[in-house]
Each structure stands twice: as structure tokens, then as C-alpha cells.
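agent> Task received from the user: take the single chain below, predict its 3D structure, and emit C-alpha cells. No templates, no multimer pairing.
agent> Plan: (1) validate residues, (2) run structure prediction, (3) serialize to C-alpha cells, (4) report one or two observations.
agent> Step 1 OK, no nonstandard residues flagged.
tool_call: predict_structure(input=
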Amino acid sequence: MFKSMSKNPILWTDGYKLCHKDQYPTHTEWVYETWTPRMSRIEGISHVVFFGLQGALAEITNSFDANFFAQPEEEVVAAYEEAIATVFENTNAKFAATHDSKHIRDLHRLGYLPIKVNALQEGSLVPVGVPMFTIENTHPDFFWLPGYLETQLSAFIWSPMTAATIADRYKRLLTGFAERTGDVNKVFTQAGDFSMRGMGSPETAYRTAGGHLLSFGVSATLSVREYLKSYYHAKSDVMMYTPSTEHSVMCSYGEDEVEAFRHLITTVYPSGNISIVSDTYDLWNVVDNVLPQLKDLIMAREGKVVIRPDSGDPVKIICGDAASDRSTVQKGIVERLFELFGGTTNSKGFKELDPHIGVVYGDSITVDRADKICQGLL
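)
tool_result: status=success, residues=378
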């Protein structure tokens, strides 16, 4: 049986933060700090989307209320003292033995976090070098608290802001191509978030997905709905997702992919959109042999069958690989589907697939690859 880990938020900080109260000049009463994106190491990124602070403040406040202020004073203070004694025992024994925990006891008795935060509007595109928010103490005895909370704030908000900034970059890229080639209104669903499995925790996942949803409407991270509804007063329809298969589903049918696809599009989902992972065995066999056998069923149903490659080079698979000795691979999946299912030429002179068929690629996409894919489809 495992022991439950303590959720005392007074310990959610960097170790060196425990020392800083003693390091400030004597008689310090007020500390004012800023949160500023100082520089960008990414080409094309000169601004950062500000997002996640409101959710972070709510989560931090809730955690302190439930796991610090509402807990017995002796327990939370003892946990702090034990951390000091243990962490610094072998590096500065005198500090470990003599450090005073009175400020932690005083905070517990105060019953709230005496801080004030001023911020830009969330969703703002903020130039690098411009402060996004400031934090200061409102009680002179707790001048140490703004810096102490920096670690938690950073842990809570760096991922949603990073995701929001990356999503904004995708949106600008896709909007630029849409303005040249088609309908700008479709951009909202052209980039989906499928990141939860790669996140450091479920909590990081919903915060990160929230950043993505500032620019797009598609996410597979179900918990982001509760995050945005709870902390940002979002409507319940803040995200959408398409019923989709995975490799285990496709493997369960064996190698008879015709019957697997047939069952999915007629029995399981006789109408509406469905995304089918299509390279469990051989993507190009699906394109050349499976789909032609099911063309009439696909064209007769209401909704879109979305073909989803899941491995390989996204640019070559979508746009074609001239070096291949296989005709279908040379053309790429989009051109091959247009040959098979047809489509239209829009008012801007570009081809669009028939609305009964589509393609989505959810693996290994980067901004650079997305740009190459869009260029390759022109």
C-alpha cells in the first residue's frame, strides 16, 4: 500500500526559495516582481501569447485553501521544518538547524495569500521583453511571498503560454494559405491538439490544451473542457473531436481491411464523420485497393471518412514522393484520393476533395512540416 504524497503547496517551490527571506536586506517590507518573456530562441517568434495566469491563480489559491490553510497548523509547519532540516543538512548544517519557520506559521494564521497581481488581458500577443503581469505583497510581513510563488506560477503557466504561442503560429500559417487558396473559416478545425499522452501530467495536459484552443477548436484532451469551464467561464462546446480509431482497433480485425472499413462506416458509424487510422498494415494498399471497393458506400453516406496516416514522412505521404518507384506514392495521398473520389475547383482556382473523403495527419507535424505540406499542395 502506497502512502499518499503530501499536497502541501508551501513545498511547491525551488529549494533555494526557502533561503531568500533571510537574504533580503533587513527591514524589507515590499517586493514587486514582473513576469516577462525575456528572449526568443525560435525563428519567427517575436511575441508570446499570454495565457494561463487566471487558471494558475485559481488552482494555486484552491490548493492553499484546501491543503495549507485548512490543515492543522502544526502539520504544515512541521512539513516545512522537516524539509529545511533534511535538504540543507549536508550543505549548511547551521542554516538547517537554526532557520526560523515563524513566517510560515504567521501565513497560516493569516488565512490567505496576501498578494496582488496586475496583468495584461489574457489572449494578448505580447512582444518579447514586455512584462505580462506583476506580483507584489500586500502585507509587509510577507515580502518574501511573491518570489516564493514564482516557481509555482512558472510551473503552471509556461506550458499553456507556449502552446498558445505555437498554436497562434500555426493559425497564421494556415490562414495565410487559406486566404490564397480557399475558405478562411475552415482554418478553425485544421489543426488539432493530440498532446495529452506526451505531457508531464494530466494537469499539464489540460492547461496546454487550453492554450491550443485559443486558436483552434479541435482537441482530444477531454479534461480541457472542465479546466476552461471552471476557470475561464467557457461554454461546454469549447472543443470538438471526431470519432477515431487506433491501431489496436484495426489490428483486431486481422488483415481483412475491407471488412474492417466496411463495418466501421456502415455499422458503427453509418453517418457523421469518422477518422480511420490507415497504415496499420499498408497505407497505399488501403488507398489503391480498399477504398475503391468501398467508394460507393463512402459516397452514399452522410458525413466524411477521414483517412489518417500515422507514420512515415508526413510531407511525402501527403504531397507525394517523386523518388518512389510506386505511382501512388509519387502522387501522394491527397492527389490519389482526388483521382478516386473526385472533387471540385473552388472560386480561387484550387482543387478541393469531395466532402465525403478527407485526410488528417496527426504524427510528427511541426510548423516547418506544415508549411511544406501547404506548399506541396498548391
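agent> Step 4: summary for the user.
The first strand starts at residue 32 and ends at 35.
agent> Done.
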